[in-house]
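so i finally got all the pieces together for this one. its four components total, 552 residues if u count the protein bits. some of the lines might not be protein, just check the labels. i wanna see the whole assembly predicted at once instead of chain by chain like last time, that was a mess tbh
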Amino acid sequence: MKELSETLDFDIRFSEVDSMHIAWHGSYVLYFEDAREAFGRKYDLGYLLMFGKGVYAPLVDLRIQYKKPLTYGMKPRITITYRPTTAAKIIFDYCIRDSADDSVIATGYTIQVFLDHQHKLMLYNPPFYEAWKQKWLQ
Amino acid sequence: MKELSETLDFDIRFSEVDSMHIAWHGSYVLYFEDAREAFGRKYDLGYLLMFGKGVYAPLVDLRIQYKKPLTYGMKPRITITYRPTTAAKIIFDYCIRDSADDSVIATGYTIQVFLDHQHKLMLYNPPFYEAWKQKWLQ
Amino acid sequence: MKELSETLDFDIRFSEVDSMHIAWHGSYVLYFEDAREAFGRKYDLGYLLMFGKGVYAPLVDLRIQYKKPLTYGMKPRITITYRPTTAAKIIFDYCIRDSADDSVIATGYTIQVFLDHQHKLMLYNPPFYEAWKQKWLQ
Amino acid sequence: MKELSETLDFDIRFSEVDSMHIAWHGSYVLYFEDAREAFGRKYDLGYLLMFGKGVYAPLVDLRIQYKKPLTYGMKPRITITYRPTTAAKIIFDYCIRDSADDSVIATGYTIQVFLDHQHKLMLYNPPFYEAWKQKWLQ
């Protein structure tokens, strides 16, 4: 099975750092989201596609482990990797590294489920997602 | 040992909801932070106190599990509970409920460690935190 | 004509302050939004009502003048005042004061127009807004 | 006198759009900030430099005029232009355009003043800024 991933370099905004010049822990949620959108663009699995299919894929689980501070002026890089599963879920793993020395700044994951247009949990993968898995994972 | 907790009612901003009128998953980081600040005010364990002591307490672990959607117009309520530990950490558990029927919207936790004024990890509790534990937990 | 206004006390989040312990200038947009929502609740002019009427009221103009720094630990208070106009617009004025000495921290305004459900600019007030003005301003 | 400007392409986050798929008006403050940081990198006038000089340059005035909606999927582009002034201020003008047809989405400006390390307003330009103007504007 192929590994699907995408890597993004990003800058820290001055407004994201606190009084220690360290990026706010909540900003990582945005970094993860940016990575997810970049993945969606690369592998054609974006929000607009899902909307067009009448499917909504909210997060049900989010975890972030902070390993070392991300300070203003650093050049961080985030890698998002698709974690294959047979469950009706989309799971991504994330790793943020300092591009200067490749040291790990943070890791984490997100789990998304599928809701139909009536906001009901879908117990099986929607057809477009099955087709997507066929196309990219085999 | 006493259980230390604080409960806050809060409103969802219209700018926090997405196209499904559901609060953005990243906003929960702010709800947790507001709860942590309210706890700090109630039990005298705030950021300014720590700064005065030359101590910085960054998050090293954050987890949020989303159980049901939080929609615009709901009246959510968050409870933060201090989780006792012998490690040199501050651990909080969180639970967000719908005040209309007390159903659970989300749960989660945060773990903080202590850094000294040189940003080095403190392996033992700083004295002010030991004193705080003596005062409130016994 | 009556003056319609609402006043809110609020707290500054630690995550909103920068390295000088001063609230980020962008946070004021949220303070204004919170004031607008409180006004909507008090005078029955909220987003959900407009949506129910098929009307969208986006901002077309925003101005904020910062008079003195808002620092962590201050107790700010925001007043929103409806500015009457014959144009098909909703105009609000805002004033943020330090509740300790009533000094002015910031002032500003927002101007909103009406779009119909096809996103076209409405040149005349929608009926629900005319009725609202009749009810509250006379 | 030379015109100093910088232009950035940017993406809209899904979390920034509201229920009409339109970017939240508050996000523009971040777009302006990103443009200001890019300008600072290009012309060597960044926050870290100022900090090193003991100078803080907070915003005292912000205005944004929204001309047409910025929707998810659009490819916006922001241009920031330095507006020369003899006053002890930094003034920038901003213009956000749709790169598809070059139509204007929003315009605005920011005005910053200088505070010294005691947070007192500086009535004259700090030396590093005078030197910067000499270097870039003549």
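Strands of chain D lie at 5-9, 59-66, 76-82, 89-98, 104-113.
Chain D is about 25% helix and 30% strand.
anyway lmk what u think
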